């Protein structure tokens, strides 16, 4: 038996070598690291002392093996955002969903192969609010025998957009959970960990992107912010979008990007402006709630032409350096700009649409309020209430004694149920200005929805105006999906089905459901395991805006979840 196993492994290795695939091994040390931002020094949680964390660079077909060692004071898990994780759900990473956390002093080895994906993804902590500082880019290039579907750029830059608190983010969310109020908003956005020229004590460390005149660069944008969607623009330069969420797109030119938390956008930029000047890359929030505090700051990086002629020096003869040009950014609440950008994203060729549909789901996504229990603090918008959120009136409760995947695999009773509703328990005017207060309080529960392997799933994601309407970036673990249509108001199956793009819909892993509107997505459930679906505004997942799919095994080993690794953390 041992010889057979060795021969099997050797044959797999030989096939991998023939295919040009490689195995990349890394060690991630999660640790406290002192950094200074906004004139103050903080001890933040990082990977390998880097902020942002290490960039992982692989090719399609490669395997990643990352040993995560927790030297920090908090529990931690790492999620490889957007990786399909075929049959390797144990490596997906969300805490209490596919694993129990890595406790302080513990370790866990994530191992997975990247299949059929090219472009920009990223990794981040999936425990509490640790991803405020624990994140990095994951770049997937084509195999050596393949090429980009566009002219090869002269150079590439990962551009990670983040969110910075002048406090410990864990303390921020813990205080909000204690009081039931909304958490304090961030103090700055960042570009590759730096807030930029518009902030005190920051100019000397502003992220600089060095380019040559006339060349075309590939900028790989990642929105790693916790709670804000972001508009992005570059002074004097148009961008051509060529990929989103590690899926290629039909190229289209734009002056502005709108990137939701969790999403990535790859753009080509031709450096065709006067090289003696400098140009800001600027990012600021797109905010759809009304009358609530938000981070109204703008983060910047600088594009500098490397030609010996840039106006970056200051001396007595030349005078002060010329300030960089600033781009035109939409207003913070410009839903028209966000909608126009989303409409431009399409697949580069005709798509095979999964059909017929086996599972038709209609999920409301939105906020709510819990009534306070005796003795609780109540910091919600009304007396005796606490903020919550839900899908189909179920506010998701993460287990604490086991992970959902482990409980499913070993048939552990009492951890979850499989009765998540396919439709809202009560139908109402979802986007009305005055929704009945009787609908504001959801039911807390750990409910999953079971899917047969291979079934075709269509989901209508409907925003509600309970408490406040909002654009919700909804992310599904373990899957990409096609966005067939988006719109405003209440979804009308008869009328809005006529708007479906069945020719070249975009493929993503995170969809920004329009404020006071809806989105329709479709995918084939061909990856067994337990897969979280949640709002990627971290305040909302904290409040319960999540659910999970339990995808059953198919036939045979290749359609079944792998056995758990021996070092899987236990609760």
Can you characterise this structure?
This protein is mainly beta and 571 residues long. The protein is 9% helix and 37% strand. Strand 14 and strand 15 form a beta hairpin. 49% of the residues are buried.
Give the uncertain stretches in residue-range form. 1-15, 312-319
| Radius of gyration based on Cα positions | 23 Å
Distance between the termini: 33 Å
**How many DSSP E strands?**
32
Number of helices: 6
Q: How big a fraction of the residues is strand?
A: 35-45%
Strand order of the largest sheet: 10-9-12-17-14-15
Structural class, from helix and strand content? mainly beta
Share of residues in helices: under 10%
Q: What is the quaternary state of this protein?
A: single chain
Mean pLDDT level? 94
The main β sheet shows up as:
6 strands, mixed
Shape: globular
In short:
By secondary structure, the protein is mostly beta strands.
List the helices and strands and how they pair.
Elements: H1 2-18, E1 23-37, E2 40-47, E3 56-59, E4 63-70, E5 78-81, E6 107-113, E7 119-125, E8 135-141, E9 155-164, H2 169-179, E10 188-191, E11 208-211, E12 216-223, E13 229-234, E14 239-244, E15 247-254, E16 257-259, E17 264-270, E18 278-286, E19 298-305, H3 335-343, E20 359-371, E21 385-391, E22 394-396, H4 404-409, E23 443-445, E24 448-451, E25 456-463, E26 472-476, E27 481-488, H5 493-496, E28 507-508, E29 510-513, E30 517-524, E31 529-535, H6 538-543, E32 546-551
Parallel strand pairs: 1-4, 3-8, 9-12, 11-19, 20-25, 22-23, 24-32
Antiparallel strand pairs: 1-2, 4-6, 5-7, 7-8, 9-10, 12-17, 13-16, 13-18, 14-15, 14-17, 18-19, 20-21, 25-30, 26-29, 26-31, 27-28, 27-30, 31-32
């Amino acid at each position: 038996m041992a010889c057979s196993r060795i021969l099997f492994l050797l044959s797999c290795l030989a096939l991998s070598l023939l295919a040009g695939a490689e195995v990349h091994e890394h060690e991630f040390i999660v640790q406290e690291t002192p950094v200074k931002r906004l004139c103050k020094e903080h001890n933040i949680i990082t990977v390998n002392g880097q902020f942002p964390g290490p960039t992982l660079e692989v090719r399609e077909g490669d395997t990643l093996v990352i040993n995560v060692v927790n030297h920090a004071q908090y529990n931690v898990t790492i999620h490889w955002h957007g990786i399909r994780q075929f049959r390797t759900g144990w490596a997906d990473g969300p805490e209490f969903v596919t694993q129990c956390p890595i406790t302080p002093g513990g370790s866990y080895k994530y191992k997975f192969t990247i299949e059929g994906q090219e472009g920009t993804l990223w990794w981040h902590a999936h425990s509490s609010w640790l991803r405020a500082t624990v994140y990095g880019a994951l770049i997937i290039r084509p195999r050596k025998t393949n090429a980009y579907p566009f002219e090869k750029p002269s150079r590439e830059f990962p551009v990670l957009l983040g969110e910075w608190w002048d406090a410990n983010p864990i303390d921020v969310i813990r205080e909000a959970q204690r009081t039931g109020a909304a958490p304090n908003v961030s103090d700055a956005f960042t570009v590759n960990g730096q807030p930029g020229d518009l902030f005190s004590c920051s100019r000397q460390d502003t992220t600089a992107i060095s380019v040559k005149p006339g060349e075309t660069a590939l900028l790989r944008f990642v929105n790693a912010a916790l709670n804000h969607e972001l508009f992005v623009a570059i002074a004097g330069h148009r961008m051509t979008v060529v990929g989103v969420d590690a899926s290629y797109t039909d190229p289209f030119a734009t002056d502005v990007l709108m990137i939701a938390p969790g999403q990535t956008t790859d753009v080509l930029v031709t450096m065709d402006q006067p090289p003696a000047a400098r140009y800001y890359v600027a990012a600021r929030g797109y905010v759809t709630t009304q009358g609530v505090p938000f981070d109204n700051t703008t983060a910047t990086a600088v594009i500098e032409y490397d030609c010996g002629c840039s106006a970056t020096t200051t001396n007595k003869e030349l005078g002060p350096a010329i300030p960089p040009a600033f781009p035109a950014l939409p207003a913070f609440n410009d839903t028209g700009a966000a909608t126009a950008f989303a409409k431009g994203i399409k697949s580069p060729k005709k798509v095979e649409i999964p059909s017929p549909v086996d599972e038709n789901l209609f999920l409301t996504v939105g906020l709510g309020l819990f009534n306070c229990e005796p003795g609780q603090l109540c910091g919600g918008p009304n007396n005796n209430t606490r903020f919550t959120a839900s899908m189909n009136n179920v506010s998701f409760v993460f287990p604490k004694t086991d992970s959902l995947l482990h409980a499913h695999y070993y048939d552990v009773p009492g951890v979850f149920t499989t009765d998540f509703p396919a439709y809202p328990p009560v139908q109402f005017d979802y986007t009305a200005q005055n929704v009945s207060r009787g609908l504001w309080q959801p039911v807390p529960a750990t409910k999953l929805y079971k899917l047969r392997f291979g079934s075709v799933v269509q989901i209508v994601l409907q925003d509600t105006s309970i408490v406040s309407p909002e654009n919700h970036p909804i992310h599904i673990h373990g899957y990409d999906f096609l966005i067939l249509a988006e719109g405003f108001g209440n979804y009308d199956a008869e009328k809005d089905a006529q708007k479906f793009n069945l020719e070249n819909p975009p493929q993503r892993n995170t969809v920004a459901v329009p404020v006071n509107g809806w989105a329709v997505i479709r995918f084939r459930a061909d990856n067994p395991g337990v897969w979280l679906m949640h709002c990627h505004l971290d305040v909302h997942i904290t409040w319960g805006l999540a659910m999970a799919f339990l995808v059953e095994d198919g036939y045979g080993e290749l359609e079944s979840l792998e056995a758990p690794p021996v070092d899987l953390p236990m609760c």
